[in-house]
Design a protein that fits this description.
Number of helices: 7
CATH topology: Rossmann fold
Number of strands: 10
Strand order of the largest sheet: 6-7-8-3-9-10
Distance between the termini: 17 Å
Order of helices and strands: EEEHEEHEHHHEHEHEE
Strand content: 25-35%
CATH architecture: 3-Layer(aba) Sandwich
Helix content: 25-40%
Structural class: alpha/beta
Number of domains: 1
CATH class: Alpha Beta
Shape: globular
Largest sheet: 6 strands, mixed
Length: 225
Amino acid sequence: MNGIPLVLEIKNSVFGQSNQQVLADVEFSLAEAEMCYLIGKSGSGKSTFLKTLYGAIPLMSGSANIAGFDLSLISRKNIPELRRSIGMVFQKFHLFERWTVYQNLDYVLKATEWKNEKERQDRINIVLDEIKLSDKKDVYVHQLSGGEQQKIVIARAILNKPKIIIADEPTGNLDPESSEEIMHLLYKIATENRMAILIATHDHILMNKFPARVFECSEGKIAEV
């Protein structure tokens, strides 16, 4: 990638679950500040690929490095540290709906060992300003629109300044206007924060509006299209 550091580099790897091979001969790379898409039909191996990247299931064989972690060698005790280096955004928001926006974000920082309250406050304020929702800090999550909730999910994902964001169908539950706002935000984050972003999606309209490299899971392989 023209000298730009790689955040994700996979070589000659096999991905699978329960000793069943799902994807083989995987060659894949993603550079700092780069965004790319992962597409494929249901059952094609996308979920297995993503789950392996964030440590939910082990790599079967080969070489895979993400955010400075070697997935072929990583131990279970280091999985939490791996996940702090990865921001995860999913189709389902998984927010505490009866908590305020601030309480949701503060919970994550406390859970990831930010012990200083002033530092947590400052980080939350910075992130909310970045996603243009500073005025919603004390609003309860259930009072937000779907698009606003997904922005809070993105805020949560970038709290710990990860090197890469993995977004699995991040616009799947949103209307077209909100979906476009989320894509604008992800693109802005990738550029301004030098974060790599991997987006699994079925939304070809958004892919056309926000062009990037596209990889497809098909017939047990991942190939750039």
